[in-house]
Design a protein that fits this description.
Layout (H helix, E strand, L loop, with lengths): L13 H7 L6 H15 L8 E2 H12 L3 H14 L2 E8 L2 E8 L2 H12 L4 H6 L13 H8 L5 H13 L2 H13 L5 H14 L4 H10 L16
Antiparallel strand pairs: 1-3, 2-3
Helix pairs in contact: 2-4, 7-9, 9-10
Length: about 230
């Protein structure tokens, strides 16, 4: 049943519609690819990826495929290049994991292969591998609405994700797009203003202060947030 009171959106690159879909002949591959994009969109992890076990556990309820059909769809998507595959040691178990084929993810995969980026390090920092969260992933929002991620901007986005509620980040991106101000600097200023003045009503400001009085003034960007 559709919740008429709320609509969430999963962004998909324009190139998927113009370049990839015209080539896909297998409906299972299309369903699988779109669902991988959906799962990746709800990850709070950099680089965002989905494991084979996740796909297998979601398969019956969301995709409705036999495991053989699921594997075939994955093979087709990987061969096509719309999804990137890597075999990683996660918590002592080797697993196939899947990424969206984006420049930032290709760079991250190269770093993983060279030993410059460790998935274990991400897990040790409390960013649980393979855990999906709501709402939108800040990295995906940046890539879909601003451009390619760089190591410097990744650090800024991570800090923002710690400082601000996820819903604020979603809404700040939407406001920036609506105003045709597609820059992280503009979005960061929106978030800083909301942290200083409150988002919407005074009642909401009180709720935020009760939940965490100093949440928005700690961290390396604390000097940007006024009390």
């Amino acid at each position: 049943m559709v919740d008429k009171g709320r609509f969430d959106f999963t962004p998909v690159p324009d190139s998927f519609f113009t370049q990839v879909i015209p080539q896909i002949q297998d409906i299972a591959e299309l369903k699988l690819t779109m669902y991988v994009f959906y799962l990746l969109h709800h990850k709070q992890l950099y680089p965002p990826f989905v494991t084979y076990q996740e796909l297998l556990s979601h398969n019956a309820s969301m995709l409705g495929m036999e495991e053989k059909a699921l594997n075939n769809a994955l093979d087709l998507a990987v061969k096509r290049g719309s999804i990137l595959q890597l075999n990683l040691d996660i918590e002592g178990k080797w697993q196939n994991v899947y990424f969206a084929n984006m420049e930032s993810n290709r760079e991250a995969i190269d770093k993983i292969k060279r030993g410059e980026l460790s998935i274990k390090e991400l897990a040790s920092k409390g960013e649980r591998v393979g855990q999906a969260v709501q709402p939108s992933n800040i990295f995906t929002l940046y890539e879909q609405n601003i451009g390619m991620l760089t190591p410097m901007i990744v650090e800024e986005l991570k800090e923002a994700a710690k400082l601000y509620p996820s819903q604020w980040i979603d809404e700040a991106f939407k406001e920036a797009v609506l105003m045709n101000k597609r820059s992280w600097k503009y979005i960061a200023r929106i978030l800083e203003r909301w942290a200083s003045e409150g988002r919407d009503s005074g009642e909401r400001r009180q709720d935020i202060k009760k939940s965490s009085p100093d949440k928005y003034i700690r961290g390396k960007y604390g000097h940007l947030v006024k009390r």
